[in-house]
Each structure stands twice: as C-alpha cells, then as structure tokens.
Amino acid sequence: MTQAAASIPAPIPVRIPIRQIVPWAVLVGLLALIALYFVSTEQGAASVIANHYVHEFVHDGRHLLAFPCH
Hints:
- The chain is mainly α and 70 residues long.
- The protein is built from 4 helices and no strands.
- It has one domain (13-64).
C-alpha cells in the first residue's frame, strides 16, 4: 500500500497572472459603472444624451433593478 500512495504526484499550484488580469478587470469595472449610470440616472436633469432614447432602451432594466423612473 505504501507504493500506491507514493506513486501519486503532488499537485502543482496554479499561478494566477495578476498583471495580465488587472487591466481587464479595470476595463470590465469601468464598463459596468457606465452601464450602471445609464440604467440608473440617465434621465431628466442629469442627462448626458438629450433625447429619451437611452431611457426607453433601459426602461425595463431600470424597473427590474428597482430604480424609480416615473
């Protein structure tokens, strides 16, 4: 039995390349914040885009995330 236990190799730890992940994490975070802005506050006085096209496009998502819009 000792030979069977000795023949199992030890697991090699996986190295996570943090320097390669950080730029993508920052990009995804910025895109998420932009999406949250458009879903939550893009209407009325705080509007970046003049028409109500963005408001109508994200209207159902706004209600789904419990943001008031009326």
